[in-house]
Hints:
Helix content is 61%, strand content 11%. It is an alpha/beta fold. Helix 5 crosses helix 9, helix 6 (140-150) packs across helix 8 (166-180) and helix 6 crosses helix 9. The two termini are 25 Å apart. The relative contact order is 0.09.
Amino acid sequence: xxxxxxxxxxxxxxxxxLLESEHLKTSTFSCALDFMQSxxxxxxxxxxxxxxxxxxxxxxxxxxLKASGILLPVIMISGHGDVPMAVRALKHGAFDFIQKPFxxxxxxxxxxxxxxxxQKNRRQNxxxxxxRSLFMAxxxxxxxxxxxxxxxxxxxxxxxxxxxxPKTVDIHRANIxxxxxxxxxxxxxxxxxxxxxx
Length: 198
């Protein structure tokens, strides 16, 4: 889905017709607030966003989306763009910045790139959620063992730190490996670090 937020009705219609000619689903909005009311954090696609609009500006919407955890790739569009404005937009998380009037092919290329990025990000987020859910199945004690393993501690040190026997640490480690569906300590470490970095 390609969302278009622009207060210029003729621009919205022109972009919508271009995107529909490429068989891209499109939803248009005349202001930032209308878009915000219909958008959800899990919404997929990309957003074409005019920089200057009455009420909430495109820049303000970009910042609001970021703060709200809405991760749509945003392509900023402006008829009054300048280098500082483009830099500011990119620093605030915009995927790209295009000046009006723009070339249709160039716009479509950037939209397709933004949609590909969105798909990649959604796959990664899904994988990260699956990894997190694996750790949710662990008991508090097992998580303590995991964190001590990740810190590089051998069983004897883990046992002493937790006030349990090394044999109990080995039992916890076996349970952890079964629940995480891994076969080595290195895999535990790798999985835990991938969840922390996500």
